[in-house]
Design a protein that fits this description.
The complex is a heterodimer of chains A (about 775) and B (about 290).
Chain A: H1 2-12, H2 17-34, H3 60-65, E1 75-79, H4 81-86, E2 102-103, E3 116-117, E4 120-121, E5 129-133, E6 136-137, E7 151-158, H5 162-165, E8 172-178, E9 186-194, E10 198-210, E11 213-224, E12 229-230, E13 235-236, E14 240-252, E15 257-270, E16 276-277, E17 290-305, E18 310-327, E19 336-354, E20 363-379, E21 382-384, H6 386-400, E22 406-408, E23 413-436, E24 439-468, E25 473-504, E26 511-522, E27 525-526, H7 531-542, H8 551-555, E28 556-557, E29 560-573, E30 578-590, E31 593-596, E32 606-609, E33 612-624, E34 630-645, E35 664-675, E36 683-694, E37 696-697, E38 705-706, E39 709-719, E40 723-730, E41 738-744, E42 747-752, E43 757-765
Parallel strand pairs in A: 5-8
Antiparallel strand pairs in A: 1-7, 2-3, 3-4, 5-6, 7-8, 9-10, 9-43, 10-11, 11-14, 12-13, 14-15, 15-17, 16-42, 17-18, 18-19, 19-20, 19-21, 20-23, 21-23, 22-24, 23-24, 24-25, 25-26, 26-29, 27-28, 29-30, 30-33, 31-32, 33-34, 34-35, 35-36, 36-39, 37-38, 39-40, 40-43, 41-42
Chain B: H1 2-18, E1 27-40, E2 46-58, E3 63-69, E4 78-88, E5 92-100, E6 115-123, E7 125-132, E8 135-141, E9 143-146, E10 148-154, E11 161-164, E12 168-176, E13 179-189, E14 198-210, E15 214-222, E16 225-226, E17 229-230, E18 236-244, E19 257-264, E20 267-274, H2 278-286
The chains are: A mainly beta (about 775), B mainly beta (about 290).
Amino acid sequence: MTGISFALTFANMFKLYDLIRFYSLIACIAVATTTAIHAEALFDNYIPDSTTITLKELSVTALKYGKRVDNEAVASSIINQHEIERYNIYSFKDITSIVPNFFVPDYGSRMTSSIYVRGQGTRIDQPVVGMNIDNVPVLNKDNYDFDMLDIEHVEMLRGPQSTLFGRNTMGGVINITTLSPLSFQGTRIIASYSSGNTFKAGVSSYLKPTDNLGVSFSAGYNASDGFFTNMHNGEKTDWEKQGEGRFKLQWRGNNGLKIDNTFSFSISRQGGYPYESAELGMISYNDTCFYRRNSITNGLTIGINREKYAMTSITSYQYIDDNMTLDQDFLPVSYFTLTQARREHTVTQDIVFKNPENSNSAYSWLAGFFGFYKNSDMDAPVLFKDYGITHLIEEKRNQANRHYPIVWDTRQFLLSSNFNTNNFGLALYHQSTYKLQRFTFTAALRADFEYNRLKYLSQCNTGYSIIDASDGSLFRHEDVNINDPGTVSKNFFQLLPKISINYDFNTPSPISAFLSVAKGYKAGGFNTQMFSDVLQQRLMGYLGIGYNYDVDKIISYKPETNWTFEAGTHAECFNGRIRTDISVFYIRSTNQQLTVFPDGTTTGRIMANAGSARSYGAEISIKANPVDNLSIAVSYGYTNARFIEFDNGIENYSGKYIPYAPKNTIFAAANYILPVNKKWLDNISFTVDMSAAGEIYWNESNSEMQKLYCLPGASIKFSNNHFSLDVWGHNISDTSYRTFYFVSIGNAFFQRGKPRTFGATLRFNI
Amino acid sequence: MKKGLLFIYSLPLLALASCLDSEMSSTQSVNADMINRTVTSDYSSTKLSDVKYRLDFDFTEATVDITAFDTDVYYSAYTLQNIPLSVNSNYGYTFRASNVTPVDGNGEPISGITFTEITGQYCNTLELRYILDDKIVIASPNEIMYTFSSTTTTTPGSEEEFVWDESTYYFEYKKSSDAFLADMTITNIKFDSRMPTQQSMTFPDLTVAPTAAGLRLTADELIPLQNNVPYPDYKVTDFEATINTNYSYSEFFCREKVTASFTCMGKRVTVEAYMYDQDVLDQILQQ
């Protein structure tokens, strides 16, 4: 309850955000200059970025892959804390392009987490990449995107992780670990101000009351006026206010018992959706767009080490309460608006057994059970407005019959839909590993069952009059009364195998090579966004026109599976000064889930299963520290992803590039630390970086494209033991590029990437 | 092809479950309102009449009794009893008898009347054929749907033609005074690639006349209806449809075909439609 009270109290602070911005910044500076308390400094002790990171034992990655994941038979990228601070990483979207072939375009709102990895990805419903935050598997990707304080490190495992991590990890898994109070004690304060009147502030406190107990509290707030203006009303569209908090408890018993519990909450309010009309050349829409989200998560990890086995239990509870409201046409005319208001509860349980940690046996094993239950209740009304009634209903109908035209009873009416979804899954998995000299052979299998049931109720009560045009008299009045309840359900069963071979070259610095074959799986389900169109066409059916949609067929989509064949190498050279990770891959997908717009003047998107697709490419990451104080990081990912077979009944897109997935991702950065060694200033750090992505095709026909674009950045950071001041710039060339493009009701829209931004970030350790 | 597959899967289901469930009960009754077309043996004269039939199936005995009320035959209801019934997993129920004397309501044989070459099938709809007094009688349901269609639209002066095979043609027969009329409802209408698909449209009050081969439906000019609202811009002229219902005793099955042609919006539309997918039917019958 303490956490919830804390959350509610924090929510009220949103009303004082103007005061908070100004006074918090002043307070941070005051605290920094007047307080000096001994604390463990995190800015001392230069650690090269190329150094292999050893994961903590209760980390879910360490559980399933071992503590040295970056030497295992998997393409992995680890971003350490220094890099997180250097590149200003607060959420998973910030690692786009830093990790090769990993791309998360920033568009829409915090609800939009469209992840593309190696040509795989979707914009709605099931993701291709799973996410764990402090071991909690975040099952709803609408909750992926929020800012977090004190991220300690981020691991991105690429390639199918379905065998060990389950559903929706066919492209990979991201594991985010926040700072541990057992490894750091003290108080951290951060304050940042940047373009767009963007303000971030946060405070966290890490305590270790006893040798084996660590407790931490953190709270953060950020707000921004945004960068893009809705020309219809002159207001910024992409404003945002967000708060988050976390309470973490870690306890280590003397008998091998370990307990971690992390409670976190996030509150997000934003305008969002700065979609520019290609025809108008501006953002201009007249109805409200916003996204509001409250979420609470609690994750409990319990680990037990016994003589013959180790057991770890990860239990989580996740709650989302969100509301997305859109001017669905994104135009300065009143077609219709859409709201999706949802409450969702999710419970997950993962139990992993494995051989004891210090086992020297050549054979090691891992076995686990995973289960989840998710219940979601959503109201999704569509308000049809005057312009939409006139142009989408009356005109269409009256073109076909001008002798008996219709006039709608009212100039706006409601199409309402309510959905209740029950979704549960059970899985058993096992992995065996055998070391034979320099070879490590691994085989794993997961049996995964999932059941999904959707109850829906669509309603509409309206009417229209039919006029005899010969004399203007009423021919007849028709009521439209739609009350369509229904239930659809699906279940899915998958066997998900994986095999790999790892070869250790047995050199002083670790060098290994691997081959792997694995099956990935993305769950099928129901696309509720299509219901507004189903209902709209049902209404048009009263007029004798419209498409006869089969509800089950139009809203349900099948699972997607893929096979990935991969080879790679991990190498550290020159005493760890250079680390190189290379991988090449080939992916063959069946029933690839794609977001398409159905026929007709509709706005909803449906998930369609393409016939088949293939993707091949390569990735390379290099982290080098050629000399002390100099770090260089380069990563490059290339993906050639095309449809093998995709005919949606209207067009044949076989051979076309898969949309929204970039062909290339590039990242390069150099950081030099100049020692100053003054009492008040230890060093100055200079960083230049560049990220790039492209080409990106925006549709299945490949008629629209975003060329490769580059976003250079730079920063200068002044640091001593207790504080740092970072002055930075992103996209300093002010490159203009598109992050998203779509067509709706025959109109094309796109979202621009953020312009050049400058800012400064203060960090304090107390 | 999709409709054909639907047909393959649907027939056994229809035969075994949806129309008559022989495994659930030993007897079952079905009522059917039919249009009888009576043709002289030389096909020189034809006549239409509306007749109500009732079929009483006895699955234990594998027989069916056919009761009809047809004043052209007898002043009250009569029954053709114990006609052998067979169930075929591919195409439902069929029944045949070469020679049956009808009985009256008391079960007494009606002298002077003999039905020969009785053949019929039932699967959602009843079709019946028999010979009575040297006249061939073909009974068809007064509501028939032709699902498998090909609609070709041509524009005068242009070589282009538009072919659409998603439409369904539904005929409903009715009696007006002493004449027979029919309403034809087309669903999923598209006469042109640019035309938005219309869900349904009804061509009302087509004149029905019997022919040697079946039925002929005509209209010089009509205004189609959609949800009972006239659509004058879709005025139809020169409408003619023929429905072929002639079968021999041995080939009677599922071959009913309608061909139609009419002019609408300056385009000439020709239609060929069947109750069942003929290619799939051929495959089944060859097995």
